[in-house]
Amino acid sequence: MSIEVRNVSKHFNAFRALNNINLDINSGELVALLGPSGCGKTTLLRIIAGLETPDAGNIVFHGEDVSGHDVRDRNVGFVFQHYALFRHMTVFDNVAFGLRMKPKKERPSEKVIAEKVHELLNMVQLDWLADRYPEQLSGGQRQRIALARALAVQPKILLLDEPFGALDAKVRKELRRWLARLHEEIHLTSVFVTHDQEEAMEVADRIVVMNKGVIEQIGAPGEVYEQPASDFVYHFLGDSNRLHLGDDQHILFRPHEVSLSRSELDDHRLAEVRDIRPLGAITRITLKIKDQDELIEAEVVKDHDSLSGLVRGESLFFKPRPSVVNGQR
Amino acid sequence: MTSATLTANANSARRGNPLARRLLIAGAWLVFALFLLLPLLVVLSEAFKQGVGTFFTAILEPDAISALKLTLTAVAIAVPLNLVFGVSAAWCVSKYEFTGKSLLVTLIDLPFSVSPVIAGLIYVLLFGAQGYFGQWLSDHDIQIVFAIPGIVLATIFVTVPFVARELIPLMQEQGTQEEEAARLLGANGWQMFWHVTLPNIKWGLIYGVVLCTARAMGEFGAVSVVSGHIRGLTNTLPLHVEILYNEYNHVAAFSVASLLLALALIILLLKQWSEARLSRLKSNADEE
């Protein structure tokens, strides 16, 4: 089911959370709303769900204007950052909740509900936890239960609010890959909110970069990274270095967009090595050049020629190779 | 103060000097024994001074029975009303933002700060024969002051804060996400309340109701002003005790007092039980 967001604005007292947002999400797509905290991404997600009412604008699901529909009639699955599992219910009862709340005529029998719940628990690989209470589960397990609970009512749209935000780094990584695989299997139109650009790049089909209540750019992960529409997008999607060229001119480049050498080469600048950090597959070198206080960070593969035997204080020659031409910005 | 915070305080004290610890504990017990335990024993010993027979005569006397009935009636009306009011008020305060919210919270606390006697006088001033509504009420043959409605009203007034006060922090701490999740899963307002909100606040609610009941049974000041002390009609148990005592009928007074005491002990046990459940719930939430 497709989602259209039409001219949506929202204020909280004097604070402008969303300013005339327009967004089309295609059926079956997995879209990330990416931005710093306070940029309005969660508000937008909650407006799509019907948990908040916009001051102006419409939400359209598959051609039908649902702006006036109550939360319970929108048929969206919603996953909260802090899970929001019902603490006094077992895992089984949590997942069964949506089915049991259906009006009597539509409500399946307890036997059908049990089958459905176990099917979902198997899907999230946690069937063995059916009798536990949420407080007995780890964060990653709780979030998977929350997802199973949201999917139980067969929503047409899945909305996830910082779903991995409360988890530790390793679990977060596992879970987001698992979510991407799950999305490939069930192809449910999904929108998730995140402030982590790596997460958005890794999981989403398209990324919506937001800042201060407006959309800065919409595009595929490669697009927003390689062709940022604004300085904000460029800085938000990755680390960057600034190299002053004199006369108030500078160029921006990413740490990996650099050529390093131990010996002097054409167009390469001399720099002093301030720090060397092996980060697994890559190594990060912090460089200091003469006429600039801002340090330069360079990232190269760990077995790069220039690294062998390199120690702090030595000299290196570097040259920026920005893929994005944004020199004068 | 809940037992959870008491336990926390005890934990930090345990690390201190052992002598100081013993002195403090001994002091606490001494105060407890002198000011609480001893009076209770006196009440009981006075009640049974002339034997079990006299005790039962005193508490089975028609006026005493009628006082007991009236007390239970006032409790039976005031407590459910405060239950409904308390849950609604706590719900509004903790789940919605609206203007006048802090004023509402302050008003809920008002009965704690106003002396019960003044509360009683307010009702006399409003509904008494010379009161604002006195003429209208007597024209319509409705009696509030010096009758059961006045006693119930006074009881409601002094017990208003108990349920709401207990629930507001609990519901604020729990937030609205589970309710939102329930609505997203298709639950209507009533289903959400019954299946999600109520189970989450259950123990806090029971605790509040127990406190409310205890206060409703024991209330003296406000009820005394509006009751008129008509024997067998508008006397509650505490008022009946006072009358007997003023008549130098000490044994009867203490017998009825021990009846009140027995009710209080039952309430205390209920309170202990709900409090234990509540603090267990809270410590579980803290572990998250």
From TrEMBL, chain A:
GO molecular function, one term: ABC-type sulfate transporter activity
Pfam families, alphabetized: ABC_tran, TOBE_3
Record key words, sorted: ATP-binding, Cell membrane, Membrane, Nucleotide-binding, Sulfate transport, Translocase, Transport
Domain ABC transporter: 3-237
GO cellular component: ATP-binding cassette (ABC) transporter complex
Matches recorded under CDD domains: ABC_CysA_sulfate_importer
Alphabetical list of SUPFAM superfamilies matching this protein: MOP-like, P-loop containing nucleoside triphosphate hydrolases
Protein name: Sulfate transport system ATP-binding protein
Biological source species: Pseudomonas fluvialis
UniProtKB/TrEMBL annotation, chain B:
Keyword Transmembrane recorded: yes
Annotated localization: Cell inner membrane
ABC transmembrane type-1 domain span: 68-269
Transmembrane parts of this sequence: 23-44, 64-91, 103-124, 144-164, 205-230, 250-270
Cross-referenced PROSITE patterns: ABC_TM1
Pfam families (alphabetical): BPD_transp_1 (PF00528)
Swiss-Prot/TrEMBL keywords: Cell inner membrane, Cell membrane, Membrane, Sulfate transport, Transmembrane, Transmembrane helix, Transport
Role, per record: Part of the ABC transporter complex CysAWTP (TC 3.A.1.6.1) involved in sulfate/thiosulfate import. Probably responsible for the translocation of the substrate across the membrane.
Quaternary structure note: The complex is composed of two ATP-binding proteins (CysA), two transmembrane proteins (CysT and CysW) and a solute-binding protein (CysP).
Record's protein name: Sulfate transport system permease protein CysW
UniProt source species: Pseudomonas fluvialis
